């Protein structure tokens, strides 16, 4: 695993915050399900632009349009799931799922050729050892230079990019996850990578992920002291208000109620011990 602890200039990072950090913030599953209660209605021309590519067939692009959604900040994402992950977006048929796979893999091929910088975000229940990741979000960005990792100057609006909202409870989702996270050609930008990487490497239930992450940059280190990590909420308080305008407030998400049913049961460490150890 290659993990780059890169210190990026805070002033420059603040200027590009809207492109580096908060498309991911708008992708918490709770926010996404509330904000996207209806399928995103995008202009045909915009969808064609987002889905165009040398390796994407017209048939594939046409079918996956039904699975495009908008985040809270109007960023376009393709839902990668075999079931209904987002309210108002139906589950794909078997044919659509195959075309969706081909389309996503074509985009990943292009991302690898272009050596893109990729905003990466994960959500789940208690990420880290013993927790469960449920979704992954990936979004290409031009905010950081891929050659020297320097923040690029702010010049107008970032070109439209298509992100992926990936269901990690599906086999296709895990396949996409491994393809992106294990790629040395794609640099992943994560805010607070420790717990996410632990889950990616060690998560065994409900299905083993067995991901070996490569080329990861922890953006949180750009704001933190060597002995203490700065929380995102505290960091955002120091950012000019115009750069976070429209950013959903984290307090609107009732995490306790969301996780209170405790549908998932994770094995305790003792359950993995040999039986004779229980009986002396």
From TrEMBL:
Record's protein name: Uncharacterized protein
């Amino acid at each position: 695993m290659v993990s780059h602890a890169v210190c990026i200039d805070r002033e420059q990072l603040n200027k590009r915050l809207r492109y580096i950090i908060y498309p991911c913030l708008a992708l918490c599953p709770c926010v996404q399900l509330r904000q996207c209660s209806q399928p995103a209605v995008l202009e045909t021309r915009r969808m064609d632009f987002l889905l165009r590519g040398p390796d994407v067939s017209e048939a594939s692009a046409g079918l996956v349009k039904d699975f495009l959604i908008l985040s809270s900040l109007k960023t376009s994402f393709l839902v990668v799931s075999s079931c209904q992950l987002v309210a108002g977006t139906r589950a794909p048929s078997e044919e659509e799922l195959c075309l969706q796979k081909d389309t996503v893999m074509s985009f990943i091929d292009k991302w690898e050729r272009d050596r893109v910088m990729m905003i990466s975000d994960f959500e789940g229940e208690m990420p880290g050892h013993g927790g469960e990741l449920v979704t992954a979000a990936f979004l290409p960005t031009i905010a950081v230079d891929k050659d020297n990792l320097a923040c690029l100057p702010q010049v107008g609006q970032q070109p439209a990019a298509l992100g992926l909202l990936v269901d990690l409870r599906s086999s296709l989702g895990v396949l996409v996850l491994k393809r992106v996270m294990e790629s040395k050609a794609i640099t992943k930008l994560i805010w607070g990578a420790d717990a996410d990487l632990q889950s990616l490497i060690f998560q065994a239930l409900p299905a083993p992920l067995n991901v070996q992450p490569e080329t990861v940059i922890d953006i949180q280190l750009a704001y933190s002291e060597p002995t203490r990590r700065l929380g995102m909420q505290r960091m955002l308080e120091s950012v000019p208000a115009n750069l976070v305008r429209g950013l959903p407030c984290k307090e609107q998400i009732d995490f306790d109620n969301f996780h209170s049913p405790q549908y998932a049961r994770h094995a305790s460490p003792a359950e993995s011990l040999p039986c004779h150890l229980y009986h002396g």
